[in-house]
């Protein structure tokens, strides 16, 4: 990945979301900003993280809707455009999408994109789960409360949220531990 890829990721996300879904676009901009501030353990990993942050919600665009499940729709779009399989998989699996896919009925399709379970993945989840719908920073708890407030308890999103809370909080905890470690190293 290169800075050109980051610019291309931003341009693609902007073309799909800025006009048609301005609130979603604001969220994506906030997630990408946070990803750029965090980095990812080296220039290449930072570029992968920032690209994934720009692209994680492109599946919400009506222009790319295939299944109606945005992580999968985004990954399918990116694959069709020739983006790396790794980036497609990060988008497909962001923020515990695999469990939500079970509720949505598209687990088999999502399984085409393996979840890498790395620091980069955890940082992406952290960025997504600590930025509000308007792009403002939130704590993990505030963000989860925000999501809950928009869906009934019977909705698959709420059920998936309950089923994935440990996995989500684990990813956030690992990301926070890495951030603290980097901050400590930078103070030495």
How would you describe this structure to a colleague?
By secondary structure, this protein is an all-alpha fold. It has a single domain (about 5-185), classed as Orthogonal Bundle (Hypothetical protein af1432). About 70% of the residues lie in helices and about 0% in strands. The protein contains ten helices and no strands. α2 crosses α8 (about 120-130), α3 packs parallel to α8 and α8 (about 120-130) crosses α10 (about 155-185). The chain is globular and about 50 Å long. The model has no long low-confidence stretch (mean pLDDT about 95).
Q: Residue ranges: pLDDT <50 for 5 or more in a row?
A: none
Number of strands: 0
| Rough outline | globular
Per CATH, which architecture? Answer: Orthogonal Bundle
Structural class call reads mainly alpha
Helix share of residues? 55-70%
How do the SSEs run, as a string of H and E?
HHHHHHHHHH
């Amino acid at each position: 990945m290169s800075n050109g890829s980051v610019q291309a990721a931003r341009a693609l996300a902007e073309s799909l979301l800025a006009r048609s879904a301005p609130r979603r676009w604001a969220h994506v901009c906030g997630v990408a900003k946070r990803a750029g501030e965090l980095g990812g353990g080296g220039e290449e990993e930072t570029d992968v993280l920032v690209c994934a942050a720009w692209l994680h919600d492109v599946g919400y665009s009506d222009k790319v809707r295939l299944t109606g499940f945005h992580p999968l729709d985004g990954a399918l779009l990116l694959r069709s455009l020739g983006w790396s399989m790794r980036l497609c998989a990060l988008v497909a699996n962001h923020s515990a999408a695999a469990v939500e896919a079970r509720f949505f009925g598209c687990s088999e399709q999502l399984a085409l994109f393996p979840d890498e379970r790395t620091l980069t993945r955890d940082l992406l989840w952290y960025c997504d789960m600590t930025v509000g719908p308007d792009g403002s920073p939130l704590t993990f708890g505030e963000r989860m409360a925000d999501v809950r407030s928009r869906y009934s308890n019977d909705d698959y999103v709420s059920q998936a949220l309950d089923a994935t809370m440990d996995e989500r909080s684990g990813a956030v905890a690992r990301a926070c531990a890495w951030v603290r470690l980097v901050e400590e190293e930078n103070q030495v």
